[in-house]
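During the no-cost extension, the postdoctoral fellow (Dr. R.K.) reprocessed legacy sequence entries with the updated structure-token encoder. One reprocessed record is reproduced below for audit purposes.
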Amino acid sequence: MARTRAQENRAIRQDALREQLANKGLMQHVLELSNKINELDPSDDTSEFNMRKYKTTAELQLKLVAKYLPDLRSTELTGEGGGDLEITGIALERVTAKSTDS
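Re-encoded structure tokens follow.
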């Protein structure tokens, strides 16, 4: 099935948003916050406050990214040029179970 104009526009907008978010370095900042949390000294009185602050900041940034960019766990298969995927043949193969008797 060919992509509609709306689907093409959506893909263009999502690519632009990905590039913008990558340029802002939000994911890099989340990783830096993670390292800061790891390096906190538990005996320091302010470490609990700093940990909560870093964690909250990282969670908010990840939610911002997720709001504008959907999770890309699924993959759509398309044919050449984004057209329909053409199946040219199916092969059936007989499989026999191996004996577990020793």
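The chain is about 55% helix and 0% strand. The chain has a mean pLDDT of 79. The remaining legacy entries will be reprocessed before the final report is submitted.
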